[in-house]
Structure formats: structure tokens, C-alpha cells
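Researcher: I'm preparing a figure for a lab meeting and need a structural model of a single chain. I don't have an experimental structure, so a prediction will have to do for now. The sequence is pasted below. Please return the structure as C-alpha cells so I can convert it later.
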Amino acid sequence: MLNASSILITGAAGAIGTALAKTYAAPGISLFLGDIEAERLESLASQCRSQGADVRCNAVDVTNREEMAAWIRQSDEIRPLDLVIALAGISRGTFSREEKPEEIRSVFAVNLDGMLNTVEPAIPLFRQRGRGQIALTSSLAGSRGFPVAPSYCATKAAIRVYGQSLRSRLLRENIFVSVIIPGFIESPMTDANPYPMPFRVKVDRAATVIKTGLAKGRAHICFPLPHAAGAFLVSLLPPSLADRFFRLK
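Model: Understood. Here is the structure written out cell by cell.
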């Protein structure tokens, strides 16, 4: 079991980030919470402190490479980090409106550059100590491309493959990399979907599943099972058949 007591989370003010921070918050735990939403971040920090955690929050933009590197380094100086969770992510596509070019680039910037800006500064710190843990956030939407949110699917697929590769590279150095691959979770992002979402997971339950999976050092934390099974089957469809199911009418 990997028992992290000093944890840094990006995208902490989002639905999953908030639930995850509160799940970790307890006496003896140090939380370093980052998000671009300063007011929501302060509210979350107050809640986590009430549960006994030592909390420091920073209104950071994950697309700012220098700002992220400085924040992660300063956090590690306060208390050496055990676990870094790259959770920040956005999506812009909908059924009724196609992504605009600038929105596509913003999704790539937050989801991919933001992930790299979180991971890259942490790896040297973990290498110096000969231990550490990194969690990257993908999605079952990355199992194949869907027409509603092409940029989101593409970035989440890239994160999954990058995380798998990074895990294989860093395991020999006692650095564990896990890829979080959720299906539909109750959040403002999924609330906007105009279609049924059976087996959608409550956000508090999702946080518990993620925390348990990280403690066990799992390569993939993939849930819920029905969504995972469905995504796997969809990934096996030949393109000609997939076109029939997923093309926009």
C-alpha cells in the first residue's frame, strides 16, 4: 500500500478534485491544492482544514509552465510530496455546437500541456528521493474518437498512452504512475449532456475508488465496470461499423 501524506492536486476546485481533496483531508495530511478558480479553492481549503488537514492553496494556471514549476517546487520544500495528481481538464464540444478552433487549442493546452506542466517538475523531485507517485487523469472517452468532443477524446487518449509509457519507464526507480480512467461521473461537465447516462457514478464514490486505487498503486483505475466494458467493445469496432453508430445525423 502506498500511503501518501503529502499530496498535490491540480484542478482541485472541480467536482472530482473537490471530492478527492475532502476524501484525503485528515489530521497528519498535507494538501497542496491548485486551480484557476480562486474563490472555490479557498472554500475547499476551509472545508479540508476543518477535517484536520494542513492545507495550502494556490490559484494557478496549469498552462503556465514556469508558474507550475515554481509552485510544485515550493510545495515540495514545505513538505516533500508523496503523490502528485494531475486532475485539471476541460471539454468544449456539445451535440448542438461544434468546437471552435480556439476552443480546440484551449482543450489541448489545459489537458495536455497542463498535465506535462504538472508531471515534469515532479519527476526530478521523486528521483532525488528514490520514491514517489504520479496520477494522470484520462477518460473512457479516450477509448476512441467521438464526434461530440474530438479534442477531449484526443487529449484523454494521449494521456492514457503517455501514462502507460511513463509507468513502465519509472517503475525501476520506485516511482509509481497510475492512470485514472473514469466513465460518466456526476459533475457540471456531464450534467450538460443531453442523453441518458446509465451507471453514472456519484462524485464522492468516484473519489473513494480513485483513492483506493492509488493506495494500491494500480496502473489503471478504470470505472465503473459497465462503462469500461462498453468502451472496450466500442474500441474493437471496425471503422465502417463505427461510422454507422457515431456519425452525426
